[in-house]
């Protein structure tokens, strides 16, 4: 499937401008307004740039914007840290980036050693740049995708994809009682990733596929939200152990900064019991089910 055209600086500015009402920035609104948020002239005045220059920014015709201008726009648009990073990433990308198909990702041996050191008591999943599962321990696999083959991450071209599972796999969707909340986080993080890697053809193809095949993804993507993904809560209805609530935290990997390790911990005593039951149910996998180290990256 061909990839979609990735977001431009102008498109992002327009969606963010629509969120900011005059009252939010201390302006008085007179009479009916044709736009839901600030007018271009109002935003330009508040950011200290000329209306003509800001209009060219929204039309992607102004060339490279300075850091000072971008920071001023971020301030007026009330962007948080992740949204501001995304704004700067979009400003740096070429106007017409040439998509490049990167080589398949491979987990670093040190990350696999860390994953194995967790044993089965701490479910963990190693994710790549685009949300592909690069490796998992047995309990991580049992927690988030026990209906899939444990060895599936070993095939670089057919690895489980968390974004695809969330929007295209009914069994994975039914696992999450707070599916919509988590789905919005995944879409917002995918947008942040797209700003970091505007030439990644595999990423463009993934986004294009999800827009075409999932109306819910398309609607969430059109909202333009950006968010980092570091901690959160998953409320599960697990097919093996029933209701199970876990917190996740993301560990960044110095050896492979595109990859992050998600580690899951039980929220309460009943959740700990369910997690122990789940890991005990899978403990018969033994050494043959440990992640195998692929060839070096």
The biggest beta sheet, please?
5 strands, antiparallel
Q: Per CATH, which architecture of the largest domain?
A: 2-Layer Sandwich
Structural class: alpha+beta
- Gross morphology is elongated
Distance between the termini: 26 Å
- Write down the domain tally: 2
Radius of gyration: 22 Å
Order of helices and strands: HHHHHHEEHHHHHHEEEH
Count all strands and give the number: 5
Structural summary, described in words:
With 297 residues, the chain is of the alpha+beta class. It has two domains: 9-92, 434 Repressor (Amino-terminal Domain); 109-289, Beta-Lactamase. 44% of the residues lie in helices and 11% in strands. The protein is built from 13 helices and five strands. It has helices at 9-17, 40-47, 51-58, 67-76, 81-92, 109-117, 138-145, 162-168, 170-175, 179-196, 201-213, 215-222, 269-282, and strands at residues 124-127, 133-136, 231-238, 242-252, 260-266. A five-stranded antiparallel β-sheet has the order 2-1-5-4-3, sandwiched between helices. α5 (81-92) runs parallel beside α10 (179-196) and α7 crosses α13 (269-282). The model is unreliable at 283-297 (pLDDT under 50).
């Amino acid at each position: 499937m061909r990839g979609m055209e990735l977001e431009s600086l102008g498109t992002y500015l327009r969606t963010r401008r629509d969120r900011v009402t005059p009252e939010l920035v201390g302006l008085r609104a007179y009479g009916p307004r044709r736009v839901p948020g600030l007018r271009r002239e109002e935003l330009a005045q508040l950011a200290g740039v000329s209306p003509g220059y800001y209009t060219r920014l929204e039309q992607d015709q102004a060339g490279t914007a300075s850091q000072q201008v971008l920071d001023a726009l971020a301030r007026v648009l009330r962007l948080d840290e992740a949204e501001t990073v995304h704004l700067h990433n979009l400003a740096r990308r070429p106007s017409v980036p040439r998509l490049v198909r990167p080589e398949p990702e491979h987990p670093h041996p040190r990350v696999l050693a860390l994953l194995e050191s967790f044993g089965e008591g701490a479910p963990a999943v190693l994710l790549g740049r685009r949300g592909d599962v690069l490796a998992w321990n047995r309990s991580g696999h049992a927690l988030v995708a026990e209906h899939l083959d444990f060895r599936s991450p070993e095939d670089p071209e057919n690895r489980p994809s968390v974004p695809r599972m969330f929007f295209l796999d009914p069994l994975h969707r039914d696992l999450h009682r707070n599916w919509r909340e988590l789905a919005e986080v995944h879409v917002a993080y995918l947008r942040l990733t797209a700003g970091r890697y505007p030439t990644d053809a595999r990423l463009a193809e993934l986004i294009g596929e999800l827009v075409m095949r999932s109306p819910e993804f398309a609607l969430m993507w059109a909202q333009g939200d950006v968010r980092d993904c570091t901690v959160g809560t998953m409320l599960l209805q697990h097919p093996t152990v029933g209701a199970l609530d876990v917190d996740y935290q993301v560990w960044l990997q110095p050896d492979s900064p595109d990859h992050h390790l998600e580690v899951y911990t039980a929220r309460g005593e009943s959740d700990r019991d369910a997690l122990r039951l789940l890991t005990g149910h899978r403990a018969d996998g033994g050494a043959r089910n440990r992640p195998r180290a692929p060839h070096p990256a």
